[in-house]
Amino acid sequence: MAAPTGTRIAIARSRARRLGLAAVAAALALEAASALVCRDADTANLLLSLAFLLIPLAPALVALATPNPLCAVAGAATVAGWIAYASQVECGAAAQTATAATVYYAVWFYGFLSAAAATLLAAPLLRVLGIRVAVPARPLAGRDGP
């Protein structure tokens, strides 16, 4: 099922990379807000919790270096969903149980798996939707630019 030819959307690679970086930053900001509100984290614990998220965000970070950096948005969005779930468990009524202490294992394990799957499936989905990342034009060797 291909997209109609009139609905093609081309996004510059630099803009796609910025969108991917913004999605990763949004996931990290969500974790920072959760750490500050729910756990009253100090600076060391905040940095540790952000470093902890580099494992599940690894597929999104790798996708930033690929020809289609928009795939990083899908990977970061799935991790953000797991962070929101962990925040709800940690800050909600279940905070009194042992579940709150172990919920971030789900973020680490399932977040990585879902980010990897979403990152890999984003490229074909974007292709079907008619969204592509434009390759910047390179000047020919030996020709002077304008």
Element layout with pairings:
Elements: E1 9-12, H1 13-38, H2 43-52, H3 58-63, H4 71-91, H5 99-129, E2 131-134
Parallel strand pairs: 1-2
Short description:
The protein is built from five helices and two strands; from the N terminus they run βαααααβ.
**Residue share in helix:** 55-70%
Structural class: mainly alpha
Averaged pLDDT: 85
Number of strand segments: 2
Overall geometry comes to elongated
Q: What's the alpha carbon Rg, rounded to whole Å?
A: 19 Å
Strand order within the widest sheet? 1-2
State the low-pLDDT regions, or none: none
**What proportion strand?**
5-15%
Distance between the termini: 41 Å
Name the quaternary structure: single chain
The biggest beta sheet is recorded as: 2 strands, parallel
Number of helices, counting only DSSP H or I runs of 4 residues or more: 5
Q: What sequence of helices (H) and strands (E) makes up the elements? A: EHHHHHE
Folded structure, characterized:
There is one protein chain. This protein is mainly α and 146 residues long. Helices cover 64% and strands 5% of the residues. The chain has a two-stranded parallel ribbon. Helix 1 (13-38) packs parallel to helix 4 (71-91) and helix 4 packs antiparallel against helix 5 (99-129). The protein starts with 8 loop residues before the first strand and ends in a 12-residue tail after the last strand. 26% of the residues are buried. The mean pLDDT is 85.
